[in-house]
Amino acid sequence: MKRFNSILIANRGEIACRVIRTAKELGYRAIAVYSDADAAAPHVQLADEAVGIGPGPVGESYLLAERIIEAAIASGAEAIHPGYGFLSENAAFAAAVEAAGLVFIGPSADAIEVMGNKAESKRRMIAAGVPCVPGYQGRDQSDQSLLIEAAKIRLPLMVKAAAGGGGRGMRLVHDQAELATAIKLARAEAESAFGSGELILEKAIIQPRHVEIQVFADSFGNTVHLGERDCSVQRRHQKVIEEAPCPIMTTELREQMGQSAIDAARSVNYRGAGTVEFLLDNSGGFYFLEMNTRLQVEHPVTELVTGLDLVALQIAVAQGEPLGLEQADIRLEGHAIEVRLYTEDPSQDFLPASGAVELWQPASAVGLRIDSGICSGQSISPFYDPMVAKVIGYGPTREVARLRLIAGLKETVLFGTPNNARFIVQCLEKQRFIDGLVTTGFIAEEFSEADLADPLPEFADAAVAAVLELRLEHNQLFQRALGVSHNLRDWTSASCLVSRKKYQFDELSYDLAISPEGSDSYRVTGMVAATDTGESPTVVVTLSQLQDTNAQLLVDGKAITATYRSPKKGQLYCSIEGRSAFFKDLIILDGLVDEAVGGGRVISPMHGLLLDVLVVPGDLVVKGQVLAVLEAMKMHYEITAEIDGTVSEVSAVTGNQVATDDLLIEISEPDNDETKHEAA
């Protein structure tokens, strides 16, 4: 095989950073690629060289194989590492890389092609004797044939994109009446995400575990497995929490699943890192799901329990070196749990979010690893997947790993965009997770709408925010003043200065009076109003130390650490023990609040592309009716009416890009007279 000294990483975000770090540690020259939206991204700064490849949308940059190869040739790269996502499982891309005289750090194009198609891979696994879920993977793709085959399988069943992964182009069907729509939606999403509308049908295994086996193979016929990962905590078929080893794994079951994974890899002459995914039922039966012909998002947990660097192994195998490992050499030690940090809003049905990162401050502690691809001041683009970091806890036992991970998540701060950190902590603290008894239905079964609602800030947190905001204002004033002693802070000739702050969160408001009480101490008294009730609590807040983004304080004598960021006067992000909130001082902002939305004003929940607008002015609509379909961050979202009424205006245009909070449609409610007339 051709030797190489430089590697172009055909990806972005945290995986590009992760590959670049290992490549540079091994002495390779690392070259990044970037879209216009990523020009200032961390992976660009980390690389030895970076090459622009086009506009922000993936179809105009990261998914253009010819642009990637041109960038490699122009920069003098001799090999390409695809990371995951984008072109990592594109057989034509792998072949084109090799045809250009470059080394593809991954399996052969033939292996990618076979395993990249769920229908073909399943046919191949059946032939290789690997256990498979009953279903239909035939070549007749007409809707009528799929409906006929579905009747043979019986409900419930899964409709899946043959060419895809990550939960896209996938629908679970419980009701025969929903089947035709599920096929239509899955096919449309598959065509949009993968360029192929081919589908397969599978019997739904209810409440299984999702357990995958990491395999590695070289060009000399050596294939081993590196143990398993349990990826059962999922939402909409996308993994949220992964761990190694699986909490209920036995030595016998690991050997059986491991051997099946090795058989699967050998059946396609596999080379490099790959993952064979299985569904594991409650009786110990397991079924082939798919093979991912690339490095997985969750590979760090395997690295932590095996002590191996999987990227370094990928590079060595691509250099033509033998794996240097036998199955007996693989030892699993300790436990690792990984969570995916997404810029999404759990309280709004996990809608992806984009915007500026006001502060990114990852935790740093023993037994904690954080792989990220963001930095403070960066903008989260609407063009890409909303995962921005992975936080991994490791320890000698599962419980130690879990507790370290929870502590790390509470210490990690991401200000500026909604994120799922609190939701992940909730998952980790559920008794069912603690007991290791989760299945793929865990999130749907354990979380109610109330669980996912944003918690309102506590009075003490509001008091801390008020003191921090006041001190920051004072510091700015002192910087502009000449010859004024700090001893005069909070003082007037009449009496000590009393300041006022007012914060509003839905129907909860804090109207606070902040009075100096000795050096660096303040008594905060407030009126707390929530609907018709009110109370007037008081706390004493002492500011012990104030740094750029962190403060040490005492709240009624209890020591706390607060992380904060003030983007402008009257605004403060503040996080205390994992509780984060955005405080806007209505006194400074002259009482202005955000314009109310909802009801008859239908706005875009995020940046995205309008795939379809289903109403026109004059249409009668009912609450819950789908009005438009939006594509954002690789997923399709249905925008529905919040009220009954008549469409009065449609600003949305099919095919247009829209931004968060753009007005799409207006609905007029029926007046009372009209309603009464209809009733009569």
Automatic annotation (TrEMBL):
Entry superkingdom: Bacteria
Ligase in keyword set: yes
Domain Lipoyl-binding: 592-668
Cofactor(s) recorded in Swiss-Prot or TrEMBL: biotin
This protein's UniProt keywords: ATP-binding, Biotin, Ligase, Nucleotide-binding
Keyword DNA repair: no
Domain ATP-grasp as annotated: residue spans: 122-319
Coiled coil: none
Residue span(s) of domain Biotin carboxylation: 3-448
Protein name (record): ATP-grasp domain-containing protein
Naturally occurring in which organism (per UniProt): SAR92 clade bacterium H455
